[in-house]
Amino acid sequence: MTGTGFSRNANFIGLLFANTILGVAMPMLLILGGLTGLMLAPSAGLATLPASVQTLAGLLATAPFSLLMGRFGRRAGFAAGGGVAVVGALMATYAMFTDSFVLLCAAHFVLGAALSSFQYFRFAAAEVVSVEWQPVAISLMLTSGLVAAIVGPEVFIMAKDALAPVPLAGAYAALAAIVLAGIAPLSAVQIPKPDRPRLNERKTRFSALTALQRKPVRRAVGIAAISQGVMMFLMIPTPLAMIGCGFSEATAGDVIRWHVVAMFAPSFFTGFLIKRFGVEQIAILGLVMVMAAALAAAVGLSSVHFYGSLVLLGAGWNFGFIGATSMLATAVADTEKAAIQGLNDTIIALVSTICAFAAGMVVTGFGWAVLASVTMAFLLLSFAVLSLGKLKPA
């Protein structure tokens, strides 16, 4: 192995370690947002407000962090995100000590903004390997989600009473320590820095948005948004639907657990499948699997149907999202990356937010079968649009 090859592999390993450690924050916040909101909210109706403002912050901060990385480099962007996350975790810790719901919401807003920076690890992974290995690098980077899904809840359990008698404050303090530990491996990582834009080039960063007129870019953004949005639309109301069908909370939780495993476990080989069969084929296969998940949800309400649907949904999301990310990584030039990747993730976050809110209204107002049918109709429309876009001349 050449020195250059070793250096690039070492950089990828450093990014993988950092992303794996930092990824533990997300499942911890999924648990903490609801519990602490219920403890401090003036009314039960506001219990989900911390989680809601966290999602909103992620939507607002996605593009600015991408532009920051385009200006100063990936490592600076990740370090800035980590620093903001530490501040947010300490704010939340203090909010628990002072019983301040307003401060708790502000802390989750700061944390949501910070976590949006970490999603760019998948693009950073593609930048430290050769072009032919980019799909594998992106795929392996997402395996950190599987580790986080297992480790995050365990860290929460161990740390939640560390600052007793104040409940849950210890988990927020542990979150700050985890972020600091996650930033550390980045000190040894060398990520190519973007050229410093001159005054006459600054408009180019924003005019690069015209890249959306190109079919490969549109298809990559569209497939990623569809994969993420449909996954949220089916996943979010699953526990509510299962409890409504008479299943226990433990069974509903187990279905979600296997869904998360299915989301990230295929990452060990998705990149190699892309190298073997082609990126667009795997991405479309992911959408087909998501369609099969919606069909399984529509035809029955047994535990087998719920397990099968959510496992198919997770694996389909993996193929579609990794495929779309790989498509985008190769479809844009270096000068376009900051603007296009930021817009891509902003669109994904916007679609995810809309789908998450809409899912609750559909499942409570019309039922699980209708929600599954709406999903299939949306996917059929998406397939038609994608096929039309592929047939139209450039």
Tell me the name of the CATH class of the largest domain. Answer: Mainly Alpha
Q: What is the overall shape? A: globular
Number of extended strands: 0
- Portion in helices: over 70%
How are helices and strands ordered from N to C? HHHHHHHHHHHHHHHHHH
CATH homologous superfamily classification of the largest domain: MFS general substrate transporter like domains
Q: State the end-to-end CA separation.
A: 41 Å
Radius of gyration based on Cα positions: 21 Å
> What is the mean pLDDT?
82
Stretches where pLDDT is under 50 for at least 5 consecutive residues are 1-7
Query: Count the helices. How many?
Result: 18
Per CATH, what is the topology of the largest domain?
Answer: Growth Hormone, Chain: A
Assess the beta-strand content as a share of residues: under 5%
Major beta sheet summary: none
CATH architecture of the largest domain: Up-down Bundle
